[in-house]
What we know:
By secondary structure, this protein is of the alpha+beta class. 22% of the residues lie in helices and 26% in strands. The chain has helices at 139-180, 184-190, 242-253, and strands at 2-7, 12-28, 51-60, 63-73, 82-92, 107-109, 116-122, 129-135.
Amino acid sequence: MSESVENGADDKVVIEQRLLKIDEIFVYRIPPMRSADGHRADDWNLAKPLSTCSLIVCRRDNDLCINIMGERPKPGAPVGAVETFLFAQSNVQVDFSNPSHKIDHWVNPVVDSSRYFAVRIKDSQTGREAFIGVGFRERTDATNFRMSIEDYINSLKREEKAAALHKEFEQSMSLRCQSSGESGDAKLEKLPLPKSSLSLKEGEKLRINIKGTRANPANKNSPKIKKGIIGMAGLKKPPPPPDAILASHDSDHQGPTTTNNTNLSDVDWGDFE
């Protein structure tokens, strides 16, 4: 799910894409990390979470927003009506050129469980940052949360690589145009298409499977067709000679032959009155 958000200040269109939504998570107030190994879920008092919320992970431009949504009674509504509000938010801004802006700065899995994470949140009003604990009831939800973060990181790497290739292509084009004295559009028309290498690398093998040529092991014991009648397997039998046709015609005009001549007088009819 993606949405385009238009910023009125500089008329920039920002694309927002939802990566994950989980209806139930547990939020914990966690103590400072005791050792350099990492956070431990056993220190969080897991039986008493701070709140039960929902989680939405979305990408907004180049940032990853981890929104923790809570519920509260809706004012002026009937009893039992609730509304959702932003309980906490983590705005992830990964920069591969800056070691302090890696994903570990915002999201850290605990060392003693696969269902709990320490997430860095920031107060938009005061600017203060702190870690809170996020836990999932199902292990599959925790796996989906981890995979959504990995998809975000991989997409940033692909986009960065594509931008570097595009920049390199533009630089090479500008150098060629300057050396030849032609305009960029004219030079593009004369450029040959890039050659693709179809040769096999060392150690690679090419396998080709052609239908109908592979021997069927089930037909090993089937009778073989003689060489002289290979081409006659699918043809009908030739018609009989004229003498055989005449003989069969004469036999049709003769009366039917009886194979069992039973004498009716020998039949025992019993007493008949």
